[in-house]
Amino acid sequence: MDIFGMLVWAVVFISLVFFIILLVKGFKAWGTAHTILLTILFIESWTFLFFAGSVTHQRVALTKSHDTLMEKVAKLTKQVDLEMLGDRLDPSLNLEKFVPLSNEVNRLALERGRVWRGARRQAAPPAKQGEPTLYAVQLPPTISNLPVAPPADAANAGGAAAPAVPAVDSALTPESVVYAFGEAISPVGLLPTVYLGEYVVVANTNGLATLRPTAPLSQVQQASINANETWAIYEVVPIDSHIAFAAEGSKSEEDAIFGRMDKNKIAELLGVDPALADADLLQLSPKDVAKAKLLQSYVNDGGRAPEKTLDSSLGYRVTFTKDHTIDVDSQEQRNAMEGGYYDLSGRSVDARLKRDVDEAVMFKTGDTYVFDAAAAKELDKLGVATLGERIFIRPLNDYEFAFRDTRRLTIRARQDLLLISRELDEVSRTNTVALEQELKRSEENTRLKMDKSQYDKEFAVISEVATSLENEVQTKTKELDELYGSIIDLHERLVKRSRALANP
Which of 60, 350, 397, 467 has the largest CB neighbor count within 10 A? Predict the structure, then answer.
């Protein structure tokens, strides 16, 4: 018995002694009836007090039990809330909890549309003359990426629950555009490993879809089609993600905010040598430099930024020196297909990205977060935060645009190759004609040289004869001069004689 109970029994004993003394002294004056009535009243009063005390005792015990159970309920509710949603004060997304993981899975499912895994190739009908080759695949009866349905009490656990599973049609409609990937067997099942191109659905009969490529396929894609019996059909090309290339089971760390990147696995996916991840770009050939830059951009994602990193790929670990609020959600609300996920100021307009509360995000003094270079420098300029460690953040790729751009470049390269081949053939024919003409000119030159040699010989003989004749001419001329002189002399003598004869 505790001290309170001892005090109660002491009061009961004292009141009983006081009642007996009062009853003995007042018995003669009150009489028998009054004494009996007073005794009954005393007994009834203490009986009421006894029951009231018993009720109070039970009430106190039940209240204590209720408070204990409520504490347990609050603790279990907090634990369930933590298991369902994660730590609300932790800014990093904990994908080990149910609701964040379900939301992430559903977001990925909503972003990439429907997916059919394990679609098997079948014999395709022949294509019309002049049209691309047709391909046929037997689609599985169910879609592979249906969103995960949340439990019935997910909303009661606190926060927003994952969206419900939408009703979908598993059939592909004709004229719709899909993207095909070749699959390979892995420990977790069939996984897409190679891009087979973009296709238009020509027909779909009981799950047997006939597909026509939207552009000529490359030799690699044609070889991959022949090597892969099962295809993965996507309505939308999968979106890029920072955490998609992290090693399985890795978590966010100080020097790897997106998790540890497995360079061997990434190199295998990109089809490059893993050694290029640590290679010096200055010592590589131009072709290997492009591969090394691509591999290093994936491997360094979320880690410390190398020197001379551009602001487009740079982030800072920012420490707030003052309390600061940032409005991250816009009052405007629209679907991402109507103009993107964010407005011009960077606030989210897509309902799936907005938070459950309308309040601005509050950053307290000492809080540390990672911001992109532009936002971090703006906070530093405002004087509310200081810039810390530089983080490399890989710009996300639009793979659909990249595939189409690659296809466009491939088609252009093929056209350029055909044009160059035609020009090379023309140059080759021209070169052949030039060689033939050169051969003819060479033969003519040989004959001309022979003629010139003969001409030189004849010219030498003719020159010699001409020289001899010239000498003879000079000799004859001299003789003629002398003869002419003698004739003149004889003429003069004849004239003189004639004159002499005429004048005897």
Answer: 350
